[in-house]
Design brief:
Helices cover about 45% and strands about 15% of the residues. The protein has about 250 residues and is α/β, with parallel strands linked by helices. The N and C termini lie far apart (about 55 Å). Bound molecules: SN-glycerol-1-phosphate.
């Protein structure tokens, strides 16, 4: 089994363009709706689907969502885990990630030690990734007990990124937190890109194409959006329900 398939594919694509990944939280909608979102992402030209969320992830909602997605899309499905409690054998890869700026040792190495034997047993491709939470951090900052990096301390982000790289991690993720009022500052991304040799992922608070372009120009290698998808699906559902209500009143 090729254990670096997804990462190799991502590295290949990153050498040519900035990638987009959509984050789908199995706790936010039914597996079928999740699969529909994944299919919308694929049609829109996204590069991979990340599955995960800070709270409410169970083995059941994770497996069901991943399985429903697999029927609909060919894009790689990557688990974006919060803890070792739920790991799906059906994903194409898992971010084997450490929240480097957490004050909770479990988030830094404990969950990883618990999850590692399952990843091995299931034969899932692990993608080693350093992950840091930047102000405001939102739910993931709280749940992860992050010692949050200030928005005006890009050097601190660089130092974490270098540490991730020197520890052998293959990706470095700057997280502003899902639903953050603003994305990661452009200066922080620029400085990370100038100093790091591993790809930089940026997520949290990215709502419109202009913002996404700005982050891509600053050097982000992968841009992740989550909330925007949920809002779209709610809107679509709202409209469908409204029209159905009018037509079948
Ligand atoms: C994943 O936190 C992001 O890293 C998702 O953030 O929900 O704000 O897009 P949004």
């Amino acid at each position: 089994m090729n254990q670096t398939k997804v990462l190799a594919h991502l590295y290949d694509k990153i050498s040519e363009e900035t990638l987009h990944m959509g984050l789908i939280d199995p706790d936010e909608q039914s597996p079928e709706e999740g699969a529909e979102l994944a299919s919308t992402l694929e049609k829109a030209g996204s590069d991979a689907v990340m599955v995960g969320g800070s709270t409410g992830i169970t083995q059941e909602n994770l497996d069901e969502t991943v399985n429903a997605m697999k029927k609909e899309i060919d894009l790689p499905i990557i688990h974006f885990p919060t803890e070792a409690g739920a790991i799906s054998p059906h994903v194409d890869a898992i971010y084997f990630m450490s929240m480097l700026n957490s004050k909770d040792l479990n988030k830094v190495i404990g969950e990883q030690v618990r999850g590692a034997p399952y990843v091995k047993k299931m034969g899932i491709e692990p993608i080693p990734m350093g992950y840091v939470v930047v102000e405001p951090g939102m739910t993931v900052g709280k749940v992860g007990k992050a010692d949050i990096i200030s928005r005006d301390e890009p050097e601190s982000a660089v130092n974490f990124g270098l540490a991730a790289q020197y520890l052998g991690m293959r990706l470095f993720y700057l997280e502003a937190g899902s639903g953050a009022p603003e994305p990661i500052p452009v200066e922080m991304i620029k400085l990370c890109k100038e100093n790091l040799d591993i790809p930089v992922i940026v997520g949290g608070g990215i709502r419109d194409p202009e913002q996404a372009r700005e982050l891509a120009v600053a050097g982000a290698d992968i841009i992740v959006t989550g909330t925007v998808l949920e809002e779209c699906s709610t809107l679509e559902k709202k409209l469908t329900d409204m029209i159905a209500a009018i037509k079948h009143e």
